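Bug #77: duplicate submission created two jobs. Keeping one. Sequence:
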Amino acid sequence: MKRIIASLLRQLGFWMIFFLITRAIFIIYNISLIIGEKIGFIDTISAFWFALPLDIATSCYLLLFPFLILVVQTLYSPNWLNNLNKVYTALSIVILSLLTTAELGIYPEWKTKMPFKALMYFKNPAEVYDSASTLIFIILLLIFGIQCFLTYKLYIKLFFTQIKKNSPNFLFSAFFIIIFLPLIGLGARGGWQQIPINQSQSYYSNHNILNLASVNSGFNLAISIIENYKNAEKNPYEFYSIDDARNEVAKLYLQEKDTTINILTNKRPNIVLLILESWSADLIESIGGEPGITPQFHDLEKGGILFTNCYATGPRSEQAMGSLFSGFPAHPISSVTVQPDKFSKLPTITKQLIDTGYHTSFYFGGQLRYGNIKGYILYNGFKRVIEHTDFGKEVIRGKLGVHDEFVLARQLSDLNKEQEPFFSALFTLSSHSPYDQPMEKVITWGGNENEYVNSAYYTDRSLGQYFKEARKQPWFKKTLFIIVADHSHNSYRNWSFVTPYYHRIPLLFYGEVINEKYRGMKNNKIANQMDIASSLMHQLGLDSSPFIWSRNLFNPYSPKFAYYSFEEGFGWITPVGHFVYEPRINRYHEDAVRDDMKDSVRKQGKSFLQVLFNDYMNL
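Kept job's structure:
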């Protein structure tokens, strides 16, 4: 019977070693990011210590099935039960290795562990493959294969215990169940404390990469799945009564005067919306970035209005689409664009413009099925949608699709034949990994983000050529260009993913249709990309009331705040400071609000998220 107890303890030991190995791989794989954030050796290896409670809990969950096998083997022990244990362990190794290897691939872009929301992308595995360079994909496959092979060999050689045939022992069986089942349950729960263990147990650093290294991947994904289904019926962000929260949001949107500065010389201009993939504010010299990365954008600023304090509402492209076209902010956990039953109830600027006589088109060099963007775009009413399959063989393609210079040229050519007024949107892609743009590297600095910086230089160069040709077209003088990022990206400054500095993006209104006295201005109003909807409607003299979450940026009296979300939390920015809060683990990642305003500002931000998520659930 000693072999029964030894088998259970050895399997516990194996899973603890397994998690240690996967954590070491994560840290080694991302070592350039860790060095980029100037994280010390002691802080880094501390992840292994703080990981222990969650690793023990996850190991105990994994032991439940082997425990049942061992209970049976105290009474009945044929060899096929030993083989069943091996098969279960092998399958668990494969699943967990697949999870942890996938996280190696998504972390540099997503800055998160694998959430439930990410699973939807695996419905289209080609997109997952295309988002990484071939070399990275091969490396990840090798890591996955080697990890599976070696850890299973390790299990068989050092940790597996063969239970031989023996006579039934009912007394020992009862003892085994009474003693070890509660211990496993206690381990899975994380101890005797009132609240069961969760991911916050492993948070220990101001560097989020270390917290994520410490958090057990299997535990994290399981909680994410459970929370997602639980949130189908209950708002996970209920901080106050819904009436109290709505009153707070109503006060937040109050403005002293409903007015607007009319920046346009034409009430029915053509409109071109250029959505820049993953452009951080750190790429823009006028917003504090290093000079020389985007010189063409810098030149465009002289002919437009640059918003220097604008933030993306979410970290994903599909979330940006809902924010840009519907004025509906992104929110944690899920995306409205992947749910047609919900986004069909949202207003869209496209439909507003179509009703006013605009002709519409949308251009993208890749596949719009990513994040169900195509479904959302088609619902928006875009009459002509051009994506990768609509380009000929003469254009240069990367893994993600047709590169920016060719997509921009295609739009330019088509607009020469478009009936006016037109509304045309274009979404770039070359500044998304794997950064295989057709250009030799120009920028030699940038550290771990050198390739990203060079990809932005390429897109910027393509914009320069685009506008050089656009200025020759007869429709140019009657066209308003709105240039904005879909979301931000890690930059050479290696901001923490949760801090506002990470989520700041460029927003530029540009064109000769803008009154000369406003060209070259910089507006430091705290803003979100969702505010484009209301701002545009006011400039065109159209009804902005459907866009209840959007503010008019050209109203000097409009409220001053910004919001952004990430997988399980949000950031809130005001003139008196900002805070970053993750409700699920009740953690303030940052809290820089003026002391005498903390309570009121916290209530603003929490009420905003509560009402937003409530509205999302009720769509």
